[in-house]
Design brief:
- By secondary structure, the chain is an alpha/beta fold.
- The chain has helices spanning 15-27, 47-57, 73-80, 92-108, 128-134, 150-161, and strands at residues 3-8, 30-36, 64-69, 84-89, 113-118.
- A five-stranded parallel beta sheet has the order 3-2-1-4-5, with helices on both faces.
- The model has no long low-confidence stretch (mean pLDDT 92).
- The structure holds adenosine-5'-diphosphate.
- The site of adenosine-5'-diphosphate (ADP) has 16 residues, from α1 and β4.
């Protein structure tokens, strides 16, 4: 059984992420989408909230499992018995970082390969950070976020704008 891992911050999961999840789930026997800790980003949503969002928007995909881990990705993949990391590539700007990460992960775990899926053209410009910013305004988010999580994303931003969490 080929198990692939799709790691990321998913803060929150966007339609761009979901498109990669749906395509990768058709290629591999099992896809684990893992919310990872990224020391350079301060997340808006808790790890539990991000896992909950991912579970809700992937409930139609039988071979997709959602997880969260503070581990190094190379160690996590080894522990899960996976030899493939999936990454989505939006533009040349993603490429340089992802190429470096792929080489580092392979150095740390020589049994691990990184496969890139190109973003679908209508999702190329989407990032969680831009969508978080948009969600503070009265903008229709249905092109950007899966319907199931739009009310939660809006509510969180209202709480933040009001100074709470
Ligand atoms: P972001 O860069 O938006 O904070 P993540 O860290 O959650 O995203 O990204 C996880 C993975 O998903 C990365 O491989 C990233 O390149 C990819 N990705 C992010 N947004 C998109 C998109 N709109 N289309 C395709 N891949 C994407």
């Amino acid at each position: 059984m080929t198990i692939a891992i799709y790691p990321g911050s998913f803060d929150p999961v966007t339609k761009g992420h979901l498109n990669i999840i749906e395509r990768a789930s058709k290629i591999f026997d099992k896809l684990i989408v893992c919310v990872m800790v990224n020391g350079t980003k301060r997340p808006t949503f808790t790890s539990a909230e991000r896992v909950d969002f991912l579970e809700r928007v992937t409930s139609h995909l039988d071979n997709v499992q959602i997880d969260a881990s503070p581990e190094l990705l190379a160690d996590y993949a080894r522990r899960m018995g996976s030899s493939v990391i999936i990454k989505g590539l939006r533009a040349a700007t993603d490429f340089e970082n992802e190429f470096q990460m792929a080489l580092i992960n392979r150095k740390l775990n020589p049994g691990l390969d990184t496969m890139f899926l190109t973003a679908e053209h209508q999702y190329m410009f989407m990032s969680s950070s831009v969508i978080r910013e948009l969600s503070r305004y009265d903008v229709d988010l249905s092109d950007f976020l899966p319907e199931q999580i739009i009310p939660d994303v809006r509510e969180k931003n209202h709480l933040i704008d009001e100074g709470g969490k």
